[in-house]
Amino acid sequence: MKLFTKIFAVLAITFVTVGSSFAKEVNLYTSRHYDSDDALYQKFTDKTGIKVNVISGKGKALMERLASEGASSPADVFITVDAGNLWKVQKDGMFQSINSSMVDNIVPANLRGPNNEWVGIAKRSRVIYYNPVTVSSDEMEGLSYEDLSDPKWKGRVAIRSSGNMYNQSLVSSLIANHGVDATEAWAKDFVGNFARKPEGNDRAQIMAVANGEADIAVANSYYIGLMLSGKKGEEQQSAARKVELHFPGQNGRGAHINVSGAGLLKNAPNKGNAVKFIEFLLTDEAQSHIVNNTYEFPMREGVAPSDLIAQFGSGFKEDQTAVASYGEFNPEAVKLMDRVGWQ
Ligand SMILES: [Fe+2]
Known about the structure:
Blueprint: H1 2-21, E1 25-30, H2 35-48, E2 51-56, H3 59-69, E3 77-81, H4 83-91, H5 101-106, E4 118-130, H6 137-140, E5 157-158, H7 165-178, H8 180-192, H9 202-210, E6 216-220, H10 222-228, H11 234-240, E7 244-246, E8 257-264, H12 271-281, H13 284-294, E9 297-298, H14 307-310, H15 324-328, H16 330-339
Parallel strand pairs: 1-2, 1-3, 5-6
Antiparallel strand pairs: 3-8, 4-6, 4-7, 4-8, 4-9
Helix pairs in contact: 7-8, 7-16, 8-16, 10-11
Fe (ii) ion is lined by residues 81, 220.
């Protein structure tokens, strides 16, 4: 009787396992919550017959969910922003190698995680916005992140809090290039130049430049596209028209690059479909769809960014620092920002 139960259990598990690996579906956890994404996933389904089951939520909540579900998680693919977050999921042992030559050919090595367990699907830069009325183009010429510690910027810089992952990744990139001590000395002077106590999101920093609270602000590149598009209301649209975008570090390493990325879960029940889905996100069609809805930069060469963002120059020099280092140096970055009083 016991033996029968055992055999039956093994057969049942085998059946379920085999059954699910042939299921025409892929389970996606995503912190992106654009209506336009649903249209994109429908295109994938139309092409392949594979249904995309979407669970969306805040990145942190989804990461906690993945951790608590563990090996029994139904998730195949996790999409989120910032390499630092993807690195953390990998460090917790939740991803596996994607193993796709198509993906390797399109995504540069510095924009993929170790062992190709996650890959960038779109790029964003952390740039400097400035008010052309109070800041001359001469002052901006060649300006790098490193230059922002100069006392000439005292009381003129807006940036959000150190609790924000985008800032942590920017500081991590400086640690990767200069080490902890030099980055800490820089950060101390940089914080001394703040126009106000850090508050609000990236768009709030751009607003601060538009309304004269600060002369320059550090914020991600796609927000200006989003604001100019009018999707965030008239006030933000008219504010966005008052500022200019500057790509930092053009005479040096280049502008800081981060990614929206996708990782393949270790226990993906639909692994084959998941790889197909990640490959689809890197096709011309999907890349155009993504950049025209999020105003990010395409991962794939030959796909043009949205006009709203391309007007600021799309041929800028990109920092080639490996985005995986943002995760690696994140604990050092967080401690360093705390030590220098970056609130
Ligand atoms: Fe963002």
